């Protein structure tokens, strides 16, 4: 970790709010390095450092990968915890809005990088749990970095019980929406699928405005699942026998209807169909997705 002290750091302006703290663009006046400073207030009532901050620091210390944001230093004062990160210019949401979408090769490159960073997280038994375009940083040279590990967890088998109020609705996996208390790295893959679809379409695939609306939007494409399609689904806490009957459409059909005659690579649709699967056990893993034919030009380089 590089060395920074608070008196060397000058805040320039606020760039966003993470899950549990405000993020500023800042500069180390000694080294001239531009950094991102995440300021996390400490609890007033002697509870000390929020567990989310401890978790973020400890998980990021385990991860070192070009597609995961680097934590450079941690400074703790009596009132605040400061996390110092490398500074990255954009997030995926802002860039998507600024450019009015991505071209096919940008989409492919960004999705590949996202899967590489995620594969590294999962290899270290870390589930991010809050993947969304705002948490994916993009440098001016087109490097994607996964950020904001405030909700991440390390997992072990058998999977423990986790809270289900994570992941912004539009990117939230159906098992979380149905109240599953046990979930796996597959929840991150569902988020990857929805982000990938959003890059292809330049609009959100399932823009729900409440948990139930989110579920219904998913079921409008995939149909209402039963235990044949997804073993055990009817036992999940929020599954209801009074859900309306949804007829099943092909995901391909939904994508084609939304794409307004824009050409979408059939291999991209094939990959999406293997990631956006209701049953989490049948979704591709990050590692499997990287080997998909859609990424063949990158895989030639990896050999």
From TrEMBL:
EC numbers on record: 2.7.11.22
Record keyword Signal present: no
GO BP terms in the entry: G1/S transition of mitotic cell cycle; regulation of G2/M transition of mitotic cell cycle; regulation of gene expression; signal transduction
UniProt binding sites for ATP: 38
GO MF: ATP binding; cyclin binding; cyclin-dependent protein serine/threonine kinase activity
Keywords from the UniProt entry: ATP-binding, Kinase, Nucleotide-binding, Serine/threonine-protein kinase, Transferase
Protein name from the UniProt record: cyclin-dependent kinase
């Amino acid at each position: 970790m590089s060395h920074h002290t608070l008196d060397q750091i000058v805040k320039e302006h606020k760039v966003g709010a993470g899950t549990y703290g405000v993020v500023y663009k800042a500069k180390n006046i000694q080294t001239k390095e531009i950094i991102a400073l995440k300021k996390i207030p400490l609890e007033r009532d002697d509870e000390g450092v929020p567990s989310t901050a401890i978790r973020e620091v400890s998980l990021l210390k385990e991860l070192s990968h070009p597609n995961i944001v680097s934590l450079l230093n941690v400074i703790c004062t009596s009132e605040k915890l400061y996390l110092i990160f490398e500074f990255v210019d954009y997030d995926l949401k802002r860039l998507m809005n600024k450019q009015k979408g991505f071209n096919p090769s940008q989409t492919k490159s960004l999705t590949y990088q996202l899967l590489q960073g995620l594969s590294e997280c999962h290899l270290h038994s870390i589930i991010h749990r809050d993947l969304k375009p705002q948490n994916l940083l993009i440098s001016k040279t087109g490097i994607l970095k996964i950020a904001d590990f405030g909700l991440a967890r390390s997992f072990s088998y058998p999977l423990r019980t986790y809270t289900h109020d994570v992941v912004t609705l539009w990117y939230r996996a159906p098992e979380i929406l149905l109240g599953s208390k046990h979930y796996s790295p597959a929840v991150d893959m569902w988020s990857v699928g929805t982000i990938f679809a959003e890059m292809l379409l330049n609009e959100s695939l399932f823009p729900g405005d409440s948990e139930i609306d989110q579920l219904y939007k998913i079921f409008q494409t995939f149909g209402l699942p039963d235990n044949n399609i997804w073993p055990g689904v009817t036992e999940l806490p929020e599954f209801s026998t009074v859900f309306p009957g949804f007829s099943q459409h092909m995901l391909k059909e939904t994508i084609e209807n939304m794409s307004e005659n824009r050409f979408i690579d059939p291999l991209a649709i094939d990959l999406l169909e293997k990631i956006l699967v209701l049953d989490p056990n049948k979704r591709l893993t990050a590692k499997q997705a990287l080997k998909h034919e859609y990424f063949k030009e990158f895989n030639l380089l990896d050999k």
